[in-house]
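Q: For a teaching session next week I want to show students how multiple molecules come together into a single three-dimensional assembly. I've collected the sequence lines for a complex. Could you give me the predicted C-alpha cells for the whole thing so I can convert them for display?
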Amino acid sequence: AQKITQTQPGMFVQEKEAVTLDCTYDTSDPSYGLFWYKQPSSGEMIFLIYQGSYDQQNATEGRYSLNFQKARKSANLVISASQLGDSAMYFCAMRGANAGGTSYGKLTFGQGTILTVHP
Amino acid sequence: DGGITQSPKYLFRKEGQNVTLSCEQNLNHDAMYWYRQDPGQGLRLIYYSQIVNDFQKGDIAEGYSVSREKKESFPLTVTSAQKNPTAFYLCASSVGQIWNQPQHFGDGTRLSIL
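A: Of course. Below is the structure for the complete assembly, covering every listed component.
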C-alpha cells in the first residue's frame, strides 16, 4: 500500500519569498514517481513537477524545485520568489510500479496544503 | 489545443436519480481515471481504464459505473445507490501504464443533491 502524508494544513508566505511544502511517503514498490499538483480555488488540478525514485538529481521546473531525500522518504516542494497567484491548495501524489516496471496507474494523494501568499 | 473536457461544470441530482458526468480527451492517451474530492480532502480513485473496453474499480467504486467504448471518452454514472454523491469529480488521463508519466486533469464537475 502507498501512503502520502502532508503535515501542513496551511502555510503563509510573503510575496517574493521562498516557501517549502512538506511531503513524506511510504511505499513497498521498487520504483515510483512523485508528483506535485496545484489546485486553485476554481478547482482544476495543474501538474507542477515530477521526481522519479531513481533520479539522481532533484527536479526543477522554473520556480518549482523538489527536495528529494529518498532515505527519509520525503519529497518537499520548494517555491521560490512566491507570487500572489501561487495561493492555492498543493497536493503531493505518488504512483508506483511493480518489479516489471508497469503500473496500474493509481495516483495516491496526500490531504493537501493550502498556501496563502501575502502582498 | 489538447486537453480534457468535463461537462457539465455543475450538476444537481434528485433522490433516486442516476446522473452521468462526461469526460472527453483529445490527448490520445490510453489511460483514463475518475477521482472524487470531498471538501478539504485529497482525491480518491473511483474507476480507471487502461484501454478501450476495459476498466477496473478503484478505492471507492460502490454506487458508480463507467464505460469505455471509445479511447477519447470515459463517462461516469453516479447511480441512486451512491447515498452521498455530493462532491467534486475530476477526470484525468495519462499516456498509459508508464509510472513516470503525470496524469492530466479536466476542470471538474461539482455534483450536488437537490
